[in-house]
């Protein structure tokens, strides 16, 4: 770790010395003053000190149904996300208060594994096999994943309380960190559509997405504790 990262780590430690964590008011004030002095001396802003970035490579080079989940993952983990595209592929970069981006990357992997497994499971299902052509089987699979993504997004939204003031504060910090990166392009996502004849398949996908076991746990301090879910290790 280079010197500036050591300084940032020290500042985060100092700012963590609060009465809620067992420090006296005098100790908390002294720690905050020392942290502010370090920030001034090293010309560090709050978002530069308190934020981190987590990156995960996307499985597909083109946008698909799963892409509309990354913004929900970011929000659940008090982050913002930027989709980066290069000649080697695409990646999701999560930015937020340290260490939430690390949590976002793991939750992303959990969710991505669930979507991938759902697509493979449907392809092996009786519902898919009864389709007479490869084209209709592919269309039915897309319809199922469309519903699955909708259901899973609903499940992910249950992981956070939009009225939590700390959550809102963390998102504001993430916004400031993203603004510091300069102008960026927003990922364009078209509407999720499925032919009317696949409405029952879409509904089955929604139910499966809602039933996916994804959970987010945090310590009382607000720092990430653990995420448990259906991760695909196959």
Short summary:
The protein is α+β, with helices and mostly antiparallel strands. Helices cover 53% and strands 14% of the residues.
- What overall geometry do the principal axes of the alpha carbons give? elongated
Multimeric state:
single chain
Could you give the order of strands across the largest sheet? 1-3-2
* Beta-strand share of residues: 5-15%
What labels describe this entry?
234 residues, alpha+beta
Can you describe this structure?
Helices cover 53% and strands 14% of the residues. The chain is an alpha+beta fold and 234 residues long. Helix 4 (70-76) packs antiparallel against helix 5 and helix 7 (134-157) packs parallel to helix 9 (199-211).
């Amino acid at each position: 770790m280079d010197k500036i990262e050591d300084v940032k780590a020290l500042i985060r430690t100092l700012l963590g010395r609060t009465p809620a964590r067992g420090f006296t008011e005098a100790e908390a004030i002294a720690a905050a003053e020392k942290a502010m002095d370090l920030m001034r001396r090293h010309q560090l802003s709050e978002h530069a000190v308190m934020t981190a970035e987590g990156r995960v490579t996307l499985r597909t080079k083109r946008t698909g149904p799963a892409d509309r989940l990354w913004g929900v993952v970011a929000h659940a983990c008090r982050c913002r996300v930027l989709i980066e595209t290069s000649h080697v592929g695409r990646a999701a970069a999560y930015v937020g208060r340290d260490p939430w981006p690390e949590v976002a990357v793991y939750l992303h992997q959990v969710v991505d594994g669930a979507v991938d497994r759902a697509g493979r499971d449907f392809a092996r299902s009786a519902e898919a096999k009864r389709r007479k052509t490869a084209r209709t089987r592919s269309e039915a699979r897309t319809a199922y994943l469309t519903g699955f993504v909708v259901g899973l997004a609903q499940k992910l939204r249950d992981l956070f309380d939009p009225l939590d003031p700390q959550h809102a504060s963390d998102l504001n910090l993430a916004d400031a960190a993203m603004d510091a990166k300069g102008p960026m392009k927003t990922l364009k996502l078209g509407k999720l559509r499925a032919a009317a004849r696949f409405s029952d398949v879409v509904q089955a996908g929604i139910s499966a997405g809602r039933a996916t076991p994804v959970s987010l746990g945090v310590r009382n301090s607000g720092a990430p504790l653990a995420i448990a879910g259906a991760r695909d290790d196959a």
